[in-house]
Structure formats: structure tokens, C-alpha cells
Amino acid sequence: MGKSNEPIWRQAVNHMLHFSFALKAEIEARLGEELGFGLADHEALINIHLHDAELKMSDLAEQLVLSRGGITKLVDRLETAGYLRRAPSAEDRRVTKVEITANGIDVVTRSRAVIDEIVTQRFASRITEDEAQFMKDLIRRAYHDEESTLVEE
Question: Cβ(58)–Cβ(89) under 8 Å?
């Protein structure tokens, strides 16, 4: 393959996107095979679990960058599966909160193990701690804005 005339930043972004698409596809396939759900389900559950309390549906939608309709469908699916439950807010009856169930904690623990295995094999085992920290700092700096939905785990 010859030398690209593209700026190095574009090459870097293209590599990052291609890698993330491939990684996401592998994660989606494994989660589907082993747990019967996808990465969006995992992301919703992990966000609620890490919040360590009830979370407003509107806040969850914002964190996952979903519309009101999108978050409703996702929560419906996860509630039907028994992974979370809706509850009216004690402070404001117009607000619906979601909380993770024991089954939700179990499945998110298992999905996190699947994701960790794939990410370790495809990525983490190939870089140093310093490189990982450098990448984290770079991505945070590039992504940071006042309205960032980046969740710190």
C-alpha cells in the first residue's frame, strides 16, 4: 500500500473509525449470541448501574444520545426482559425514573466480562498503560465540550 496524500489527522480518524466499527460489530455479535441483547442494551444498563441510584429516563436518553421515542423502546425492551424497572419520581410525578434490577446487574456484569474479553484481546493487550492513558487524554480533549455525554467508568 502506497503512502497516502491524506493529512495524518484524517488517516488517524479513519483508522480509529474503522477499528471502532469492527470492534462494535464483534461485541454486538458476541452479546447477541451469549446474552441475547446488544451493545445499546449494555450501555443503558451500565449507565444506570454506574449512576448508583434511580436515573431519570430523560437523563438516560441524553447519555445514550437517543430520542424520547428511542429511549422508550429501549427501556420497554429492558423492562420486559426484567433488567430494569420504571418508577415515578417522588419529587415530580411528571418524571419517570429507571432503576436496575438484580437480573439487570447480573446480565450487565456478564456483558461487561464479554466486552472486556474482546477489548483486551483486540486492543488492551497490544498497548501499554502509558499509551492507553495518552489515547484517553487525546479522545477526551477532542470530544470535550460543555454538552459532552461521555461517561466515566
Answer: no
Cell numbers linked to 6: 491524506
Grid coordinates of 2? 502506497
Cβ distance 30 to 114 under 8 Å?
A: yes
Looking at this protein, which amino acid is placed at residue 62? E
| C-alpha cell of residue 132 | 492507553
Cα 84 to Cα 2, 69, 74, 81, 97, distances in angstroms: 51, 18, 11, 8, 10
Which pLDDT score is estimated for 144?
A: 76
pTM score: 0.81
What span, in angstroms and rounded, lies between the C-alpha atoms of 117 and 133? 19
Q: With contact defined as beta carbons under 8 Å apart, do 133 and 42 qualify?
A: no
